[in-house]
Design brief:
CATH architecture of one domain: 3-Layer(aba) Sandwich
Radius of gyration: 19 Å
Structural class: alpha/beta
Largest sheet: 8 strands, mixed
CATH superfamily of one domain: Vaccinia Virus protein VP39
CATH class of one domain: Alpha Beta
Helix content: 25-40%
Shape: globular
Distance between the termini: 32 Å
CATH topology of one domain: Rossmann fold
Low-confidence stretches: none
C-alpha cells in the first residue's frame, strides 16, 4: 500500500495538469452531484477536493452557510482556491480531519480508495454528522483498470493499486448509517496509445508502482500487450468502475 507521503506527492505533482486529464473523475463528480437534493445545508464538508470538480457541481445546486473543503495536497487546494469564493479551503488528511463541527452534508468523490485504514477512519468520519446528515460518495472499486491488471500479470511489468470491491464499503456504512441508494457504474475511456493511457494516470495522480528497477524489455512487452489486446475502433479502451452511495445519519444511533 502507498504511504500518505507518496499519495500527497503524486497529487501535488499532478495538480497543474489534473483538469485536462481527469475526464472520468469529472464525469463521476457530475454523476454524484445528481444524488444531492437541492436546498439549504448549513454546514457542508467535502473531502478530497482536488482541483474542485465536485465543488463546482455541488455549489451550483445547493445553498449553504459554511462550506469546508479539504485535500491532502496543498497544491491541489491552491488550484481549487482560484476557482471558488466563499469556500473554506484547507490542507488535511481525510482520515484525520481536524474539525469539530457537525455537518448536514459530507461529500467525497473518487477519494476513499486512497484511505489507508478505512475500517477505522470512516466510522470516525460518521461522528461528524448532525442527525439526519447526508453522506454522498463515489469510490473507484475493483474492476477499474482491469486491462492494466491483465497486462501486469501477463508481462510481469509494473504493478497496480489493489482496489476494494463495493461490498467492503457498504458493510462499513451499513453499521452506522441508513443507505438510501447505491449503484455501480462503469466508464469506458479511450486513448490513442498505451503511452497516452499511462500519461493520463500520472497526470491525475493515480500512478502506482512497487517495482523500482523495471526491465526496459518488459516495459515494451507491456505496451505491446495493451496495444494488441485492448483496441476498439483503433483506440485503447480502459475500464473505470465506481460505486455511488447516498446514506443518512439516523436520528437514533444504530
Amino acid at each position: 500500500m502507498p504511504s500518505r507521503i507518496s499519495i500527497k506527492k503524486r497529487f501535488s505533482l499532478a495538480s497543474e495538469h489534473y483538469d485536462e486529464h481527469a475526464v472520468v473523475q469529472n464525469n463521476i463528480s457530475h454523476e454524484l452531484s445528481g444524488l444531492v437534493d437541492n436546498g439549504y445545508y448549513e454546514n457542508v464538508l467535502e473531502i478530497g477536493t482536488g482541483t474542485g470538480l465536485l465543488t463546482g457541481f455541488l455549489t451550483s445546486k445547493i445553498d449553504f452557510k459554511n462550506f469546508f473543503s479539504l485535500d491532502i495536497s496543498y497544491r491541489m487546494i491552491e488550484m481549487a482556491r482560484k476557482k471558488f469564493k466563499h469556500i473554506h479551503f484547507f490542507t488535511a488528511d481525510g482520515e484525520e480531519i481536524p474539525i469539530i463541527s457537525r455537518f448536514d452534508l459530507i461529500a467525497t468523490s473518487s477519494t476513499l480508495q486512497w484511505f489507508l485504514n478505512p475500517k477505522e477512519s470512516m466510522p470516525d468520519l460518521f461522528n461528524l454528522f448532525k442527525k439526519d446528515g447526508i453522506f454522498l460518495f463515489s469510490v473507484f472499486v475493483k474492476g477499474t483498470f482491469k486491462e492494466l491488471i491483465e497486462a501486469v500479470e501477463k508481462t510481469g511489468f509494473g504493478s497496480y493499486f489493489p482496489l476494494r470491491d463495493s461490498s467492503f464499503y457498504l458493510r462499513i456504512i451499513e453499521k452506522f448509517l441508513n443507505v438510501e441508494c447505491y449503484y455501480e457504474k462503469s466508464y469506458d475511456i479511450y486513448y490513442k496509445t498505451a503511452m497516452d493511457f499511462l500519461k493520463s494516470i500520472k497526470m491525475t495522480g493515480a500512478n502506482y508502482t512497487l517495482n523500482k528497477n523495471p526491465k526496459i524489455s518488459n516495459f515494451f512487452e507491456f505496451l505491446r500487450f495493451i496495444d494488441n489486446n485492448f483496441r476498439e475502433d483503433g483506440k485503447i479502451k480502459i475500464t473505470y468502475k465506481s460505486l455511488f452511495v447516498r446514506a443518512r445519519k439516523p436520528s437514533i444511533n444504530k
